[in-house]
Amino acid sequence: MSVLHLTAENFKSTIEGADKPVLVDFFAEWCMPCKMFAPILEKVGEKVGSDAVIAKINIDEAEAIAMEYGVMSIPTVILFKNGKEVQRHVGGMSAGEVLNMLKG
Fold first, then answer.
1. What is the mean pLDDT of the chain?
2. Does residue 97 contact residue 47 with C-beta atoms inside 8 Å?
C-alpha cells in the first residue's frame, strides 16, 4: 500500500474511521530529514500492505492539526489506534524501527 497523503479536511476521519493502526508522518517540504525519511516510509507502506494505514501530513498545509497534536519538531511520527495516539517518535527512523512501532 502506498503512503496516503492527508489534509486538514480528511485527517480526523482517517484516523478515527480506520479499523487498523494508522501511522502518520508529520513533515514539511523544506525539511531535509523529512525528505530522507520519505523513502523509508514508502518501503514500510509496501511491507505492511493492508495491515496498517501509512500516511503523511504536511504541517505547512495543516498547521492547526500540527498544533493540536503538539508537533514541535519534524519529522514526527505518531501511531494511532482506534483514533487515539498510542505512540510517538520525533526524528528519523529506520524501516525496522517503524515496523517495530507498528507491532508495539
1. 96
2. no
